[in-house]
Amino acid sequence: MGFYSRVIFPRLCELALNQPFVAEQRRQLLAAARGEVLEIGFGTGLNLPHYPAAVGKLTIADPNVGMHRLAQRRIERSPVAVERHVLGGERLPFADATFDCVVSTFTLCSVAEANQTLREAYRVLRPAGQFLFLEHGLSPDPQVQVWQRRLNWLQMRVGDGCRLDRNIKAIVATQPFASIESSEFYLEKGPKTHGYTYRGAATK
């Protein structure tokens, strides 16, 4: 992992995603979290203040050591017990049906193997467990899509692999969830190419 990925990119993520209008989306999503929770793509820990008291334990996974370093202060202040793992979501070292809830926020855009990450999330969920997701991705507007694909190469460089053109709902639907509920919208600030958002819950 290079200097940009380890040192600069985590700070860019903190700057871009630590915004009140994003925090409100996190709060709405995480209100449903409960029991033993796994968060993949933990980043700098911006979800931590929004976990409800119903969460008993939080296991976090992120392959970027720089993200973990920036998250340390939030982890120390968190009332929720946190178990850290420096790894990606494509190969999880947990047994089947370990967690009541798996959380992914602004992660599926950048993992190398999004479908494999979903397979792993589904595998480690308990029956009736939920996969909670808040992700940006492909807009349904053809004109916005054109620009998303034009800008993808630049976004992948600046965003350390982040893509603008992934259909998140379609990726979630690759797994045999019993139900998927989601809402789609543009975030209130920022360009449409980067702000088309999927927020939802898939139940096993």
Number of helices: 7
Strands side by side in the biggest sheet? 3-2-1-4-5-7-6
Largest sheet: 7 strands, mixed
Structural class comes to: alpha/beta
Q: What portion of residues belong to β-strands? A: 25-35%
CATH top level assignment: Alpha Beta
Number of domains: 1
CATH topology: Rossmann fold
N-to-C order of helices and strands: HHEEHEEHEHHEHE
Description:
The protein contains 7 helices and 7 strands, in the order ααββαββαβααβαβ. The protein has 204 residues and is an alpha/beta fold. It has a single domain (3-203), classed as 3-Layer(aba) Sandwich (Rossmann fold). Strands 3-2-1-4-5-7-6 form a 7-stranded mixed β-sheet. Helix 1 (3-17) packs across helix 3. The chain is globular and about 45 Å long.
List the topology elements.
Layout: H1 3-17, H2 20-30, E1 35-40, E2 55-61, H3 65-77, E3 81-85, E4 99-105, H4 114-124, E5 125-136, H5 142-158, H6 168-172, E6 179-186, H7 192-195, E7 196-203
Parallel strand pairs: 1-2, 1-4, 2-3, 4-5
Antiparallel strand pairs: 5-7, 6-7
